[in-house]
Each structure stands twice: as structure tokens, then as C-alpha cells.
Amino acid sequence: MTPVRIGMPAGTLRGDTTVPGDKSITHRALLLGALADGTTEVRGFSGGADVRATLEAVRVLGAPATCEGEVVRVEGAGLELGAGRDVDLDCANSGTTMRLGMGVVAGVDAACTLDGDASLRRRPMERVAEPLRAMGAAVETTAGRAPVRIRGGALRGLDYTLPVASAQLKSAVLLAGLRAHGRTQVREPLPSRDHTERMLGHFGVHLARDGGRMVLVGGQRLRAAAVPVPGDPSSAAFLLVAALLVPGSEVRVRGVGLNPTRIGALEILRRMGANVLVEGAHDEAGEPRGDLVARASRLRGTRISAEEVPAAIDELPLLAIAAVFAEGETRITGAGELRVKESDRLAALEQLGPLGAPLRVTADGLLVRGLGGVPLRGGRVEARGDHRIAMAFAVAGLRAERGVEIDDPECVAVSFPGFFSSLAGLGATVEGR
User: Fold this and answer.
1) Lower CB density within 10 Å: C or N end of the chain?
2) Any bridge partners for residue 160, and if so which?
């Protein structure tokens, strides 16, 4: 693989741009479309590797789906999806495909094996398997990880309290509950992404919500729907922070999802002094969206607590980069979940040290002593096959004297295939792409 080097730009970063469609929403739209009666149209399909894994999974389960550019049409199989089909689902690198897929196939009287690449095989799956077993599915993991083998069907509703705030775990139980007998109730200790709850309503499912409690009755038929997917806020964050860090910059990212459970990073950045505005906010298909405008800002350190982590989990590596160039100290706690993502993201961030950043990684977070206006030295880093680590270090390269060279730039295709081109289009120095 050819490395990519990102260096300090000759001038400012400026421009209007867009980002791929929201991954979280797209995964759910495809799965609910497959479970619905009728044809669901998903607009704003990103084409990233993760959502393509879910697209192929619904096809294998028996829901024909066509993809034309950014539009996917899914011919739903209804609640009979997967019936009588013993299948293997290749989830590639997508934890969402596997965990939500487990919830979907748990209601099918058939055998299913879910597997993925080496990275996905390292991620924990027992936390999803446990409640599905309690509902009546036969679930076997491989030492708590993939491959996962499920023989589903004849599920019973469940009253379940999540051990951790996890949108994927919550969604898996709710998706299994769609085909369970009786009532399924889920409680979460802290708010996590609520795209599944919002989208169930968009597909005609009655879901009662009361604070951190969700209740649905199994057997409800889903109605096909049109799903316009907003831009992915996690992807947008990388371009916004790039603008914040390069003096004199101003960048607008159009049509970004503004779901309150997804913009925790935006609120943290504002607390750090970031000048980020929301313009043209409106709702479509139950999801808020609008333009985000970021202007170069003088940042200050902050404390990011465990309660804030669920709404900013994907952006924490990027927030660590922002903290490097802030004034004062930033401390992140309660983020142990970063150790079981596509890579051990906390361990990967230790590479900031050799680049010139004073930081200390802890068991569940990190402590960063900001450099203020002082640039990093720069150097070479390993992305470790992790798209968010690659993009975070790319942003760091914009404020590094020697730039930052990334060994595995292709991994960004998991979520943001055109990331480096987008950076270059805004005025960044990108070599080797």
C-alpha cells in the first residue's frame, strides 16, 4: 500500500463540501427495509465498505436490493425475511452489520453464521449473544467473538437492562423483539444513538419511549419507506476540526445529520472554544440535519467524562488531536470501549508521543497537555487498519512541521472513501493519494 503524507498547507482551508451518508442510519435503513412490506428507497448511500456489507447481507437473507449511485432500493421480504434459509453472512469489517444482523437473524427459524475479517474477529460479541439467548435463540460465539452461529425463531419478549450504553446492543435486542412473542423492553444506563428508535417509527412500528426505556410489541408489520440519509456527522467532524486548527480557515459541510445523540463531539468542541455554527437546520424522516460551518479557533483544554463518551465515541481520537493543539490540559475518562473498536484506539493514539505531543494513555482514556500554537514535529504512523485513526492522524498532519505519513490510507474507505480528496479540495497538502 502506498503511504499518504499530509503536510501543513501553504494557506488556509476554505470551501463548501459534503460528506458520505450517515453510516449508522444507512445500516438501519437497509435492515428495516428488508424486514418491511414493499419497496424501501434509501437516498444518500455512501458506498463505504461497512454499509456495503449490510447491503450484501440483506440480499443473502432474501431481500433483493439494487444500487444505482447513491440510491438503493430494497424489496422487503417482511417479517418472513430469511425464513428457511441457512446462510453465511460476511460482515467484513463492520461491527454494526454483525451486531444488528445478530438481532435480525435471531428471529429466523434457520441457521446463520456471521463472520468477518481479522479485525472484526477480535471484537466482543458475547454481550449481544447473551440477551438473544435469553429470548430463546441458540447462539454460539467463538470464545466470545466471531464467527457467531445462530439458530433462531420462536423468540420471547424480554425485559432487559443494558450493562453498558451501546446503540448496537440496544438495536440488536429491539430488532429481535420485532419477531418475538409479546413485549420487549430495553433500558439503557446512559443515552446512546437513537437512530433505530427513530427509524422504527418511520417504518410504522409503535415504540413507546420514556427516558432511557423503550418498549415494543412483537409481530408489528413494517411499512416500506423513503429514507433520505443525511451526511455522516462523524465524517464531517474531521473536516471541521481541520478548519479549526489551520489559522484563517473556514469550511462549510452541507447536509450533515444533527441527531442530538450524535453531536456530543460538537458540544465538546464548542466548550473548548470552537467556532462552529449550525445553519439551515430542519427535519427529514425523523432525523434533524443542516449545514455546519467551522472557522479557525483558539482551543482550550477540557475534561471529557464517561457520561459524555457515548455521544462522542467515534470522534474521541479526533478530539484527542484537537486537544494536542489546545491550550492547557485535556483529560478523557470512561472511554475503555475504544480498546475494542477496529483497533485498540487508545493504544494507537500513543503514536502521538513520537510526533511531539505530550500525552499519557490510561486504561480507559488519556491525558493530553496541549501545545497551543506550537506545531508537532511530525513523522510516520500506523493506521492499524482503522479508518478513524487514519483520518485523525491526517488532521494532525496539517499542524506538523514534517507532516504525518500514514501507512495504510486505503482503510478510510470503510466510512469516507473520498476523504483525502476532500481534504485536498479544501487546500490541504496531500501527497501520494
Assistant:
1) N
2) 186
Cell of 71: 440510491
Tell me the domains of the chain and their CATH numbers.
Answer: 4-21+231-431 (3.65.10.10), 23-206 (3.65.10.10)
What 3 state SS string does 238-256 have? HHHHHHHHCCCCEEEEEEE
Contact criterion met (CB below 8 Å) for 410 and 432 = no
Angstrom distances, CA of residue 331 to CA of 284, 335, 342, 368, 391: 36, 11, 23, 6, 21
Amino acid at 254: R
Assigned C-alpha cell, 236: 464531517
User: Exposed (0-12), middle (13-18) or buried (19+): which is 223, by Cβ within 10 Å?
Assistant: middle
Q: Is the pTM of this model over 0.70?
A: yes
What residues have CB less than 8 Å from 118, skipping those under 6 apart? none
Q: Which amino acid is at 416?
A: F
Q: Which residues are catalytic?
A: 314
The pLDDT tens digits for 228-254 are 999 999 999 999 999 999 999 999 999
